[in-house]
Amino acid sequence: MTGDDPLEESAQGEPLPDGGAAGADDVALDPWGSSSVSDYRKLFEEFGIEEFDEVLEEVPNPHYLMRRGVIFGHRDYRPVARALQNDEPAAVLSGFMPTGDPHIGHKLVFDEIIWHQQQGADAYALIADLEANSARGMSWDEIDEHARNYLLSLLALGFDPEAGELYRQSAHREVQDLAFDLGAEANFSELQAIYGFDGETDVSHMQSVVTQMADILYPQLEEPKPTVIPVGPDQDPHVRLARDLAERMRFFKVSEAYASFELEPVERDLVAEFYERLDPAEFDDDTLRCVHVAEALEEAPLSELGVAADILRSVLTKLNEAGMEPIRPRTRFSDRRATEKAFDALIDAIEGEKRVYENHVDAFEIDRDEAEELARQVEVDTGGYGFRPPSSIYHRFMTGLTGGKMSSSIPASHISLLDDPEDGYNKVKSATTGGRETAEEQRQKGGKADECPVYELYAYLLSGDDDEFAKRVYDECVGGERLCGDCKEQAAQLMREFLEDHQEKRDEVEELLEAAEIELESPRRR
């Protein structure tokens, strides 16, 4: 869940809003390794990441990274979009592992945090110093130096420390306390399956994972609210685990049910289908009962039901054992980890007809959405967290200026936000392009902007909010009007100007950082 991922990875392909890119490599997501995502479409298929283009129209005043498809995917972003639309509470959080200088890849995450803050979300930015120490072996002196540079760039780009919160993991007691609580809901087997941990993995590395889970859920400590985590796709394992833990920490699970006993989701769908299909008036007392549904299922051809034989047997067993119990749709509140006080409070809070059982309550006059809010409110009122599953948005990795992936070990492949502006100019001038072998061929066939690191600089950074300029550069390239020499010269000049301006602003916000409520030096022993 750290913001250094764009420098660790690369993506081949122009940032188009269709979420696709050339290639068909296997997808591997490793938050600390060198994951390779050459086909972003596989993330939709294999990990359930949704295309951001489908939610774009619901986002008020979308950032240019969203409009241009640089932000290509999301998990459950609609609640955040709705909250921003309606001026309701929302939050954004991302972290930065201070293992080197901040670079143009980090700027993607900085911009995403700042944009959400400007749209009204509570904004949080953290220094993942525990992760840097445990997973990367960074010394505390190194971490302090790099952390300061990250924070100065974040402030220079527009983060408002008075309206948001900056913190470092090692100095935040509330985060540490929350990590302890979350740790009780996670185990080694789970971390092993998600992250590939083994007997050689040190405990501090595992502890840093739980701390990151606490970071992700921290914005909801005072109030449950939609929260988005902007990250690269290699950080998705953290997001998925955080969503799971948010659910496990809930007092109650809300679901739909049709009888007093439990049905698996596929079984419930089958019962629901026959509840709608059968007419209660055809039975003795105008009541549809479990045995009636069982009889109808037994008479229906298995091929028509569309379920496996073992699932049908399970449903029939449950229905026949329930016998003459009426089938009635209801909303179920299941006791997941509620205190006795919370369970009693829930019973009192449910209005209308209800049935109380040992481990759940069935309500007949409340819909699913109302039930979710009621369960959350009771939980918060009785000492629980009431977490909402955190959302996430995913940006494409930037291609290295030398081709292939950006790498901190290859200075020419990336541009640090601390680079001398002339060095930035020279790196762009020396960059690989998507141009043809000769100028004549370029004019005839057009350039390959989709494969050009220099065009990515225009799309991700140099065009700023000017979509027309970004499109014009692209169209001129693929149309053969723009030659690589002139294109790189323009990009190099814009990069020099950006670095000059950014570094001037970094100097201007030095006092702002000193006044911010964040530990600039680690309290850890050296």
Automatic annotation (TrEMBL):
Cellular component aspect of the GO annotation: cytoplasm
Parts forming coiled coils: 354-381, 488-526
Top EC class of this enzyme: ligase
GO process annotations (BP): tryptophanyl-tRNA aminoacylation
Locus of motif 'KMSKS' region: 405-409
InterPro entries: aa-tRNA-synth_Ic, Rossmann-like_a/b/a_fold, Trp-tRNA-ligase, Tryptophan-tRNA-ligase_arc
Motif window: 'HIGH' region: 98-106
UniProt subcellular location: Cytoplasm
Residue ranges, annotated region (Disordered): 1-28, 421-448
SUPFAM superfamilies found in the cross-reference section: Nucleotidylyl transferase
GO molecular function term, any single one: ATP binding
Principal subcellular localization: cytoplasm
Known EC number: 6.1.1.2
Comp. bias (Basic and acidic residues): 437-448
Reaction catalysed by this enzyme: tRNA(Trp) + L-tryptophan + ATP = L-tryptophyl-tRNA(Trp) + AMP + diphosphate + H(+)
Alphabetical keyword list: Aminoacyl-tRNA synthetase, ATP-binding, Coiled coil, Cytoplasm, Ligase, Nucleotide-binding, Protein biosynthesis
Cross-referenced PANTHER family: TRYPTOPHAN--TRNA LIGASE, TRYPTOPHANYL-TRNA SYNTHETASE
Similarity comment: family membership: Belongs to the class-I aminoacyl-tRNA synthetase family.
Protein function: Catalyzes the attachment of tryptophan to tRNA(Trp).
Annotated protein name in UniProt: Tryptophan--tRNA ligase
Annotated organism of origin: Natronorubrum bangense JCM 10635
Lineage: Archaea, Methanobacteriati, Methanobacteriota, Stenosarchaea group, Halobacteria
